[in-house]
Write a structure and sequence with these properties.
Length: 637
Amino acid sequence: MSYPYQLKNFEEYQQAWQHSVTDPEGFWADVADHFYWRRKWDKVLEWNFKEPDVKWFTGAKLNITENCLDRHLGTLGNQPAIIWEPNDPEERHRILTYRELYNKVCQFANVLKNNGVKKGDRVCIYMGMIPELAIAVLACARVGAIHSVVFGGFSAQSIADRIQDAQASLVITCDGAFRGGKDIPLKSVIDDALMACPSVKKVIVCTRTRTPVSMLKGRDVWWEDEIKQVETMGNPPAPAEEMDAEDTLFILYTSGSTGKPKGVVHTCGGYMVYANYTFINTFQYKPRQVYFCTADIGWITGHSYIVYGPLSAGATTVLFEGIPTYPDAGRFWDIVDKFRVNVLYTAPTAIRSLMGFGLGPVNHKDLSSLTTLGTVGEPINEEAWHWYKDQIGKGKAPITDTWWQTETGGIMIAPLAGITKEKPGYATLPLPGIQPILVDENGNEIEGNGVNGNLCIKFPWPGMLRTTYGDHERCRTTYFATYENLYFTGDGCLRDEDGYYRITGRVDDVLNVSGHRIGTAEVENAINMHAGVVESAVVGYPHDIKGQGIYAFVITEKKHHDLELTKKDIIQTVSRIIGPIAKPDKIQFVSGLPKTRSGKIMRRILRKIAEGELDNLGDTSTLLDPAVVEEIKQGRL
Ligand code: WT7
């Protein structure tokens, strides 16, 4: 594969960016021309941010899997598509060539059809990081089913909420998943979730851990048995379903400032073009390089930069089942060494945690294959940036700090590795096609450099969300109503004297814990479900490794009870309701919360207290009960 639209130097970047602004339709049509379409578009872009209504490549027909698989078979059939590294380093790794991956996706597409899955049906996928997860995702795309992947760390309740919202008819899961020393009983969690999900008619269970599972007659079938059946049928072909460019490809749930996660909807054509374009340009991927993204496919990073971006580019993508610290903190470096990884894409939280183990796990690992490093998910502090640069990249691999969101589908602001300038802590410059703008509280544009504001985007890009599943009004109010004619990211941002962007963090009630997005309202709802809890308020505070930690202020009923035990019970409740990722790090029992006279909790004050900024709480005189602030300050953890 060659990438005619891969930018090669700073001048080309500048020209491309200019072109994308003066003639967006021409710019994206040139890129889209390099894909395989069953039918080309009538119009490149139709849009308004008012409703919003955004359509890219209208009238075009395609199937993304023909771009990720079929079109590579002639030239890359024997090239590794997926290199899978198991949790246990003693277990053998697996390599799937493009031909093998194609065959497996076709087989499983037929399994889905045999189980009644049709175009437009919603399929929930809850699996660990094994090749079958990528196969399941691609097989859904092949038959035109809409996948909704749920991260393995979510609870039964969270899965049930997502399945009900999407009205999924089929679930694909595993008996269990290996992660570090743990064996997570995925099927058992699904069984709990499905008690509240009448829409689900079938469950396909893939064997991984051999954890005992209960298989419900008439509902649950084994992946392996279903594959055998397709083989008995003589492995019939699995023609890809013809999709409209604007048909939904997938739903991915993400947290916001309300209690209920929303289903971000991405469509086939624009998402494909954008995931591919940003992959090739940000990482400057070269044919036959080995690319390793450490994210989980349960998050958008895994969708765009383990599966769709790399595979549509004919790349070799490493899929790792385990965690960075198992069996020891040298695991990433062992994998880089073992497969001669060229491009490594990981999260600041992982870097900070590995930094804490010193250089022992890094020394004597051959990292000389690395040409490019990437980070994503949260702001990276300078110390971690330099450690990554010096100790991992040995000072010679460029770092691309990529800012984007579940909603954006792909990377938005980032250095093009080695081509545009990098700056520690900065996502730097927008990719071609992206028009960032900073606004003040009233939505007025903040022009010039050396300024701070709320980050918005003023023109559509192909990878942007189209709606939130089943509730378009929610999409409008969340992203397009705060500021007229702008997409609002929810992030605060600095544009420095050179015009480089630095994301400073969320300006809404959304936390970023270890790169995972968690709504404070969601955690509060979960805490409030615990018997004896009257009310709670959750805020973030700076955490050395996780970036942000979760600090909960909780009012309980006046009873004689063991408060330490109550804390544990609350943590257990949150784990049950949302999942272990949302467990509060600190719980402070209080007798009241700082509220305005109208009853609104003053989070600003709680945030300051959690951050330890006790002298700088601002005006507290308008509070209903100013005395409560003093009590909370005294009891701070
Ligand atoms: C939020 C999106 C899409 C990647 C995975 C997270 C924060 C993301 C950066 C970065 C500073 C970042 C933002 C954003 N974020 N990347 N490079 N520098 N902050 O996706 O769960 O949708 O979260 O993550 O706050 O809004 P997500």
